[in-house]
Structures are given as structure tokens and as C-alpha cells.
Predict the 3D structure of the following.
Amino acid sequence: MKNDTEIFRADADLVSQALQEYIDQSRAKEAPVITQKPGEYLAELLQLDDLVTGGGLTGDRLKQFLGDYLANTTRLHHPGYLAHQVATSHPTGALGAFIDATTNNPMAINEMGPAAASIEYFMVNWMLKKVGWTTVPTPRQLDPASDHAAGVLTHGGSLANLTALLAARSAMVPDFWQEGNPGNLVVLVPEQSHYSMKRSVAILGIGEKNCLSLPADKDGRVLADKIPALIDQLTADGKRVIALVANACGTAAGLYDPLPEIAQVCRAYNIWLHVDAAHGGGALVSEKYRYLVKGIEQADSIIWDAHKMLRTPSVCAAVLVRNHRHLDQAFAQEASYLFHKKDQPGFDFMSRTVECTKAGLGLRLFMTLAAMGERGLEDHVNHLIDMAKQAAVYIAKQNDFEVAIPPETNILCFRTTRHNGEYDNEDIQLEIRRRLLEKGDFFISTTLYRGNRWLRLVFMNPVVTLEDIEELIAEIRQIKASL
């Protein structure tokens, strides 16, 4: 009888071969980019009940399961994948996730994963340097006399935003943790902010109704010169603005807010500036596009998702703060079985995050970067943005399509129009998307922007070419002609 390690070796080879074939098949467009079938059907197809009851998921049974499972995934390696802000992961980065799952080191406590914790510390410092903030070696990380920056990796941007706003609440209202909400606190966010902003403000006990929209221009960018009047009015009404959020970039159309001007207002009014750079932080690694995040170093906190433009497997999001004290003092909990005097050659991240058990997220980012190198990663980010700009120029030239706004990053919004110049209504845009997904050659998203429904492309896959966009436009035309 085979032991566990022998079974693991054989099954790992089987999984590796199946995934390689999956990636090759996806890139060659030999299968639909998306296949959606009812959950009950998939549960029966995958024999979930039988396997849970009887076990035996190994060898030929595992091979069958993998074939059925992979056939019903959304293929992010397919050139038709243009839908959402999730990376087409680098294969070496995926190995990082596999290694972390196998070793199973919950490294938020250093003694439970010294190598993983050290790599996360290194990668957080790498990101802090890209922002332009000061870093320190591990032994001085908690030095109260130091003004260095700090950070932690979390499971996704929503949790990262929550953690950053928790740090803001702790810094601006130190007694909130013990005393609760004084009842007059307000957080200002862009009108096109990610939904996790309002959710975070509600979770933090400030109240969703106290998460207010900032003044914006017709395209949705925050108008910095209009903010003081809003703050003055809120102050006159007895409110206190403790934090202001800026986008870098916005979710719908990918636009960047004017960070230097917003930072100046925040300094004048002593307001915490948080920059949601979950998606657009990729510009930090690009000499060509870094101008998009000019002034980001003036923020008090930033979030930056590596699982978006940095090709890192999901999920891997960074919470970064300019002053380490604000993150180190954000939580005030006691846990005697974890926090006590002990040998500590590394650093415990647990005091900086909501999570107790946390995956070694830094490993998947490190292995992606170590495979590509900084220059390779920069080329990747440049390519994604360049492709969006090329696609926008091509689509704008078509007399039956309209581009919402020239893209600043790798997000492009467009819609079909009639020959008289009128745009097709929301129902038509949604039906076009539905039929695209039904056919399976392309997977795109839609968004509401400037009060209208737009088709939306997010360039995340490095193998997408302008020919793919030309094929997409041709297919949309065929669908529209059939409506």
C-alpha cells in the first residue's frame, strides 16, 4: 500500500500536468473563456456527495475530477478574458501558493512560519520603497522613536481598506476603541469609490450614512478645490471629518484623483488621507506611468493589491501606512497564549491585522516578482495600460461605437451606438454582454458611469492583442444585428 507521500508525489504530478494543459488550452482558445452551469448540475457532475461520503480522491478518480472541474472554471489565461480586476496569475507565483498551502504555516506569528514571515516583511518593505516611504530592518520595526513606514499583507482589498480605516480611526479618535462612537464622525469618499468603503465605515461603527461623497467633475474625478467648502459646512453642522479617501484609480472607469491637491487640503484640516490604490497602484512600478500616482507618498495610508496588475495569484493585498505607530496601535487586544515574552528573531504581523491565522501571502508575490524581475513586471504593467489605450483608439474610430473617456490605466469603457449618433440603451448593452458570455469567446463586464450603462474591458492578460479586440468588436456587431 502506498503511503501519503507516495500518493502526494503521484497526484502532484497529475495536477501539474492537468494545469499545464489547462493553461495551454486556454491560451489557444480551445475552450470557452467562461462556462456557467447550475450549481446542482455541477455538484452531481463532480460527484461531490459520493466523494465526501466515501473519499478516494486520488489517481484516476482525481484525474476525472480535475477534468470536470477545470472544464467549468473561468479561464483567466484565455485571450477573451477582459472582465474583472483579477490577475492572470504567473505560474511561478501559483507555485508559491501551492508551497504555502503544503507547508501550511500561518505566519502572522513568526514562530509559525519564519521563512514566510521574513518574505512578507521583505515584500512589504519593497512596496513601501516603491511608494517612497522610509523602511527599517526587523529589530527596529516597533521602535517608538522611529518614524518609519510599515505594512501588512491581507486577504483582499476590502479587508485592506477596513484595516486602513481602522488605523485612521485609531489615530484620529484614540479613545474610540474603549469609549465608542462620539456620534459626529464623518468619512469622505469619492463618488466612484469601491463598495468596501461604505461597508468598512459601517463595520467600524461610524455609520454608512456618515460616509459622504466628495465633489467631483463630470468624469468622476474628485474636485480638490471644492473640498474645503464641504468640510466647513460639515463642521458648522457639528460634524468632524476624520478621514478622506482618494482613488488611484476608480473602479468604474479607472481614473486617478489629483493626489497632491487633495493631500494639501487634508494637511490644512488635519484629516487622515487614505488612498485606495488597490488597482492603480501598479503604476508605482512603471517609470512610464508613475506620474499617475504623483503625490501618493503624502498619504497617511494606502492599499495596493498585488493580485491585480502585479500578476500575483489571489489574494494578496497590502495595507501600507506612512507612520508605523498608526498600524501598530490600531488594535488593542490581549492574547496571553500569543503575546508574551519569548525569543523573537523575526516579526509578528498579528498586531497589524484583523486576521489571526493568515496565509503566507508574501511568498506568492515574491515568487512572481522573482520569476519576472522588476523590469519584467514593469513591462507587464506598461503592456496592460498600452493595450487599453490602443484598444480605445481603435474602438473610437468605429462609427457604431463610443468610448466613454480615453483610459488612464488598463480599464476601458465603451458602448454601441446607432448611425445617427444615439447610444443604444442599457438593455441592449446588457443583452450584448449576456450573449457574449453565452457563446464563450469573450468575457467582459459592464458598469454604470456618468449615469449610463457601458460595456467595460479590463486588460489583465498579457497575451491579449489588438486582434482579439477586433474580433470582439466584430462579434458584438453580429449580436447587435440579431437583436
About this structure: DSSP finds 15 helices and twelve strands in the chain. The longest strand covers residues 240-247.
